[in-house]
Specification:
149 residues, alpha+beta, Trna Endonuclease, Chain: A, domain 1, 6-stranded mixed β-sheet, 3 helices, 36% helix, 28% strand
């Protein structure tokens, strides 16, 4: 209850300083961060950028001995399709670049790296879905059961 109130206050403050889409995206990242922690992930980085600026990962977390590089996609409604539809080949390439960089810097073998997607519909309550291993292949994302907070 207190965390929800603090999330809302943080969102209101951001909405005053940032454009609406950026504030909503960051709110989705906040929900995804907390969701992953409840699922047992240990989040070690947020908004990790390559030095070249050629890519960014919203969240980087450990799930047991697997390093998960996570892209978060948020929407205020499903009116224009599910959030995961916004991930194309260019985004996959950026995520692979970021994952390789972070794995190299942290000394993590590539076999222990996974690319995940978390989608957040900013409804009341938010609808959050985790796609494990979603970006490894070029196949489209298949919807797992949706988890509602």
């Amino acid at each position: 209850m207190i965390r929800s109130a603090l999330d809302w206050l943080r969102h209101v403050r951001r909405a005053r300083r940032w454009d609406h889409a950026r504030a909503a995206g960051r709110r989705g990242e906040d929900f995804a961060h907390r969701f992953l922690q409840r699922q047992g992930f240990i989040v070690v980085a947020r908004n990790y950028r390559l030095a070249s600026g050629a890519g960014e990962a919203d969240l980087i977390a450990w799930e047991k001995d697997t390093l998960a590089v996570v892209e978060v996609k948020s929407r205020e409604s499903g009116e224009f399709g599910p959030p995961e539809r916004a991930i194309g080949e260019e985004k996959r390439a950026h995520m692979l670049r970021v994952a390789r960089d972070y794995a190299t810097r942290s000394g993590t073998p590539w076999e222990q790296v996974r690319l995940d997607v978390v989608t957040v519909l900013l409804t009341r309550p938010p609808s959050i879905t985790l796609f494990r291993g979603a970006l490894k292949s070029s196949t489209p994302l298949k919807s797992p059961p949706t988890l509602t907070r």
